[in-house]
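INFO batch 0412 | record 1 of 1 | parsing
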Amino acid sequence: MNAAPEFEFRTSSACTYNNNDPRCVEVSTNVPGRVAVRNSVTGQTVEFTAVEWSDFVSGAKLGEFDLSS
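INFO prediction complete | emitting tokens
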């Protein structure tokens, strides 16, 4: 039986982590076909398929999730 690969998280370069406000989102794309997103404070993780993640990123770039619209 093969062990499931572990996610290797990275933090966006746009994140300005500081001790007064440690909120950053971390993303892992090292597991083929899967993307994991982790809250840097709580450690809670949500997983997506690669297609789901690609669709989300495309929508975000188009402003689909812009709350000011």
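INFO post-check: The chain has one helix and four strands.
INFO record closed
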